[in-house]
Amino acid sequence: MEFAEVTRRFEDYLRKENRKLTPQRQRILDKVFATSEHFTADTLYGWLREEEGPKVSRATVYRTLEVLTRGGFVEGLDTGDGGLVYEHVMGQEHHDHIICLGCGRIEEFHDQAIEELQEKAAREKGFTLVSHLLRLSGYCQECQAKNAAEDEEDERA
User: Fold this and answer.
1) Which CATH architecture group holds 1-91?
2) Quick check: 33 and 88 in contact, CB under 8 A?
3) What is the CATH code of the structural domain delimited by 93-157?
């Protein structure tokens, strides 16, 4: 999806909420859709502070992310440690996430067999599946190795 179309849809959505596309909201939208990274609200705020443009407050970042989430432009992902990271989803293929509990690394994946099992489970329960979020938590190879080394050290002590 072209970014001009995303902007048009955002303007339409804001109008429905009796809001306007301010220069600050435009900057936030631009930055969100310019990255393919997962980011926190504070990370986004830091990026905006580092760049030239209309001044954007931390509160405006948080409020705009809420609006973008309600409108289906971004999704928030609970990282399992009380944190929330965002990614833009409009125009993106559906995917799920694996999050490392050690370092916080996030890997995206898509598995058609899992998608089909979720659809089947929903049908069996009498549901029509509209959307879903799948988050797997565990430890990446690097953190597993680090944990194993720390365990060995503890055993020697």
Assistant:
1) Orthogonal Bundle (1.10)
2) yes
3) 3.30.1490.190
**Domain limits, CATH 3.30.1490.190, in the chain:** 93-157
End-to-end alpha carbon distance in the chain? 57
SS (H, E, C) the chain: CCHHHHHHHHHHHHHHCCCCCCHHHHHHHHHHHHCCCCECHHHHHHHHHHCCCCCCCHHHHHHHHHHHHHCCCEEEEECCCCCEEEEECCCCCCCEEEEECCCCCEEEECCHHHHHHHHHHHHHCCCCCCCCCCEEEECCHHHHHHHHHHHHHHHHC
Give dist(CA 94, CA 90) in Å, integer.
10
Q: What is the pLDDT of residues 91-132, one digit of tens each?
A: 888 899 999 999 989 999 999 999 999 999 999 999 998 888
pTM of the predicted model over 0.85: no
Low-confidence spans in the chain with pLDDT less than 70 = none
